[in-house]
Write a structure and sequence with these properties.
The chain is mostly helical and 168 residues long. It has one domain. Helix content is 80%, strand content 0%. It contains 8 helices and no strands. Helix 3 packs antiparallel against helix 4. The radius of gyration is 19 Å and the shape is elongated. Bound molecules: protoporphyrin IX containing FE.
Length: 168
């Protein structure tokens, strides 16, 4: 999509009746932002609990598989909520996000964080002890966790930063 057609799309979306409702009814955007942030809290706190276990810093009385079973649902289930509330925020002010390089960065970071979470999760489906079977695997698990924590923090920073960076 060229920049011009992206701009036309943003203008079209902003002029739709639904976007006009989001723009004019004052409580909707703050309410949607609140739900977005509550979902962020669920995802990031759960990712942190799993990462601390992978690093061997917390929760060692439980296996990695048990910790993953406990916290992974709270990483994956809020993501549709984030997608839906994010889509509403975009619809309310399309150019602010869709033409913003920080928003694109945030989506890239989010895909990377989701990929890293899957890299931890998928081997556990085949073998619950996978990450605990050898010193080499434990090291890889620690690397995954050490990458995951800064990624989630960067996604939060990017989400907040969108408001302060001009679109293209
Ligand atoms: C699933 C896809 C997601 C979409 C489409 C999305 C979209 C958005 C949009 C459009 C905004 C409003 C930015 C603005 O206008 O200032 C926003 C804000 C924000 N997002 Fe997301 N987001 C998603 C996922 C996430 C995730 C996973 C996190 C963190 C882990 C996150 C953290 C934030 C934060 C901290 C804000 C700032 C809220 C505020 O200042 O009120 N978002 N997001």
């Amino acid at each position: 999509m060229t920049l011009q057609s992206l701009d036309s799309f943003c203008n079209w979306l902003a002029a739709t009746p639904f976007s006009q409702v989001l723009q004019t009814v004052g409580w909707i955007v703050p309410a949607v932002q609140t739900v977005h942030i509550l979902a962020v809290a669920a995802v990031v706190s759960s990712a942190l609990m799993l990462d601390l276990r992978l690093l061997g810093i917390r929760g060692k009385e439980q296996s990695i598989a048990a910790t993953a079973r406990r916290f992974l649902p709270f990483i994956w289930w809020p993501l549709p909520v984030l997608l839906a509330t994010g889509a509403l925020l975009i619809t309310a002010e399309p150019a602010r996000s869709l033409e913003n390089p920080v928003f694109i960065l945030k989506m890239g970071l989010l895909l990377t964080a989701a990929g890293i979470t899957l890299a931890c999760q998928v081997p556990l489906h085949k073998d619950a002890a996978f990450w605990e079977l050898s010193a080499a695997r434990k090291r890889v698990a620690k690397l995954i966790a050490a990458a995951s924590i800064p990624l989630w923090v960067a996604i939060i920073c990017a989400g907040r930063w969108i408001a302060y960076v001009q679109g293209t």
